[in-house]
Amino acid sequence: MKKTCLFLTLVISAGHPFAQQLVPNLGDKVCALWTAVAERTKTDTSVGEQLLMMDWWSMGYLKGMATQYAFAQKVSSPLLKIRGDEEVDWMRAYCEANPRKNISDAALAFLEELESRPRR
User: Fold this and answer.
1) Whole-angstrom Cα distance, residue 46 to residue 63?
2) Which 3 state secondary structure label does DSSP give 30?
3) 40 CA to centre of own chain
4) Over the stretch 7-64, which tens digit does the pLDDT of each residue have?
5) Are 32 and 106 in contact (CB under 8 A)?
6) Is the dihedral of CA 10, 15, 16, 18 positive or negative?
7) How many Cβ atoms sit within 10 Å of the Cβ of residue 25?
8) How far apart (Å, rounded) are the C-alpha atoms in residues 106 and 31?
9) How many Cβ atoms from other residues are within 10 Å of residue 97's Cβ?
10) Could you tell me if 112 and 95 are in contact, meaning their C-beta atoms sit under 8 angstroms apart?
11) Which DSSP category does 55 fall into?
12) What is the reported pTM?
């Protein structure tokens, strides 16, 4: 039953216009790009979709890493309990401070920072 539901979900979502767009790998892009796009959206709303795509990519990347960590370690990752806006705000601040680092470096730094937080 689960396989049937998953298959139907994939079939239905594949027809959606957003599903037909290519999603680039933003992890190898430098932080300065993300920071520049975020800054530009303040005066040019036409790049808003690009910023949204970058934000979503980062959230998906982090959630995927957190899920893999939780599966491999057989424990819950603190990242699975974080709101998306907290992830994005932290990573943008990191990118502003480290413009030559890759966006994936920002994600790894965020995960390391979360690991250093006291457990609740």
Assistant:
1) 28
2) strand
3) 20
4) 444 444 444 444 444 455 666 678 898 899 999 999 998 888 888 888 888 888 888 8
5) no
6) positive
7) 10
8) 8
9) 12
10) no
11) H
12) 0.67
